[in-house]
Amino acid sequence: MKGVVQPEVLTSMVEIVTPVCEKPDEVVYYIKKSLQEIDRIGEDYGFRVSALGTHTFAKKEETNITAKERYLKLLQELQILLRQFLIYGLHVHVGFPDKELAVKAYNMVINYLPVFLGISASSPFFYGEFTGLHSYRTKIFEQLPRAGIPEYFDNFSQFEDLYFRLQEGGFIESIKDIWWDVRIHPDLGTIELRVCDSNPEIERLEFIIALFQGLSFLAQESDIPRFYHQILKQNKWNATRYSLSGKFIDKDRTTTIKRKTYSIINYLQTRGIFKSLKTDKRIEKLKKILERKTVSEKMIMVYKKTGDIRVVESLGFVET
Questions:
Q1: How far apart are alpha carbons 245 and 259 in whole angstroms?
Q2: Which domains, and CATH codes, for the chain?
Q3: What's the helix, strand, coil split of the chain in %, to 5?
Q4: How many other C-beta atoms are found inside a 10 Å radius of the C-beta of residue 102?
């Protein structure tokens, strides 16, 4: 557990950091083992792990910021924005041997952020209220000055130019102070998917990781279309509001996020991407997740049936 489970911005949060893995099933193995250990510890202290995009009923007055220099500096800068950060996400890294290859994958993933958000959506409740959205976490995070959908880059030098301008101006100290939905992480040689809500379904996590890995691989051998920024924002809103049922404005047509996800998977299969990554057998099983209700849909159904916000929170308990 040492080094895998780490403190986070709130004292009631922990971050699970897996070792570098080659395949998605290895990643979820470490996540499951860590969650089992945390829940075991929780038995003695009266708590359980909940892996949702927001806590359904906790209030900012009931939480404490971790007394770590970085978090205290962020609190000084962000004020109430950080104090209301009762939000939790899934971050996935894919490594690249070359910076320009990383930029290509980054540009590709920008187009399909709503797919990952739609699959993972798990935060329709906040401060004990039904927000009417499927991912309220997304809207809270977007309040930060360097968060949300980033811009495309033609090459790594463009990214460096932006990064050093922010750093020289004293706005950031490191890449950790840039919170885009997907970001280039030169310190680790990765791109990092950050748009996803935390999610309690282990197979759903594996599916997200496999799809992210597949799209990143595809970007190395394909032309990457660029969408108008307003289209990117609209598509993300559609996922935020409706999860997989939301509409996806593509280059030549409008479909749903769910159908677009199937289309991406089928194309990756046709191109042999999953086979090259040795995840083809797993993805065939995992894509059936798209026929299940998302966690946000389940939460909304349970709330409408019971009206009990604490029962809804229990849907975040991870069965390991």
A1: 9
A2: 90-306 (3.30.590.20)
A3: 55, 15, 30
A4: 23
**DSSP three-state, residue 17:** coil
Cβ–Cβ contacts within 10 Å for residue 60, how many? 13
- C-alpha to C-alpha distances, 10 to 85, 89, 134, 135, 209, nearest whole angstrom: 8, 13, 23, 20, 26
Q: What is the pTM of this model?
A: 0.97
| Pair type for strands 89-95 and 190-197 | antiparallel
Residue 154: Cβ within 10 Å count? 10
In the beta sheet, which residues pair with residue 196?
90
The per-residue pLDDT for range 47-93, each reduced to its tens digit, is 999 999 999 999 999 989 999 999 999 999 999 999 999 999 999 99
Q: Are 263 and 256 in contact (CB under 8 A)?
A: no
In 3D, which of 284, 265, 295 has the Cα closest to residue 120?
A: 295
Question: For the segment 223-253, what is each residue's pLDDT rounded down to a tens digit?
Answer: 899 999 999 999 999 999 999 999 999 999 9
CA pair distance 160, 168, nearest whole angstrom: 12
89-95 β-sheet, strand order: 89-95, 190-197, 182-185
Q: Specify whether the CB–CB gap between 143 and 81 falls below 8 A.
A: yes
Write the DSSP string, 171-220. S-SSGGG-EESEEEETTTTEEEEEEEEP-S-HHHHHHHHHHHHHHHHHGG
Q: Distance of CA 8 to CAs 12, 103, 241, Å?
A: 8, 28, 27
